[in-house]
Amino acid sequence: MSGKPKLYYFDGRGKMESIRWLLSAAGVEFEEEFLTTREQYEKLLQDGSLLFQQVPMVEMDGMKMVQTRAILSYIAAKHNLYGKDLKERVLIDMYVEGTDDLMAFIIKFPFLSAEDKEKELANIIEKATGRYFPVYEKVLKGHGQNFLVGNRLSWADVHLLEAILMVEEKKSDVLSAFPRLQAFKADISSIPAIKKFLEPGSQRKPVPDDKYVETVRKVLRMY
């Protein structure tokens, strides 16, 4: 064992991508085992590694952790990215869960039919610009700080930057009406650990393609 966290998932974004983001923001190196066959997945099931028969799964600190939110909470708390007290933590939780709601639309997008993708694209942009981004614009404007909570980097900031970049892949000028979010994006992207993760050759995954979708469908038998 190298001592590095080991991530078990597909070679693509999905629910694991936020875990990659948070580990990278914390400056933690990690290894990955990509699921490409049904046999790999069934072995994890037979070993009892997947408590609820689902991935992501992360081997870390002597534990085999499942459930994305639990994994992220652990990483955030361990690496001082979860606020200084309960009041900051509940704000971080609120912002993370709001961002999660937006990201859920994007994560399912590659699995839709061509016809449904057209409708869902408009829905994603409408939700981002009408419901979610205005909240963060107001928060940042209200306290005049560079970070969402406590004037220091937290899980909420990392999660929001990930979501912003995902939406920008769908519509490049989506932040045109949100000057505070534009500044936020620039500030958070320039943090050394995050900047490194955004550079070519990192463990950040590209936009999901047909090969990724087919692999997930095959391994999980989503037919």
From TrEMBL:
Q: Which domain of life is it from?
A: Eukaryota
Give the signal peptide as a residue range, or say none if absent.
none
Q: Which InterPro entries match?
A: Glutathione-S-Trfase_C-like, Glutathione-S-Trfase_C_sf, Glutathione_S-Trfase, Glutathione_S-Trfase_N, GST_alpha, GST_C, GST_superfamily, Thioredoxin-like_sf
GO terms for molecular function, please?
glutathione transferase activity
Does Zinc-finger appear among the keywords?
Answer: no
Where's the GST N-terminal domain?
Answer: 3-83
What Pfam families does the record tag this protein with?
GST_C_3, GST_N
Its EC number(s): 2.5.1.18
One GO biological process from the UniProt record? xenobiotic metabolic process
Q: Which family does it belong to?
A: Belongs to the GST superfamily. Alpha family.
Q: What is this protein called?
A: glutathione transferase
- The record lists the organism as Nothoprocta ornata
Gene responsible for this protein:
Gsta3
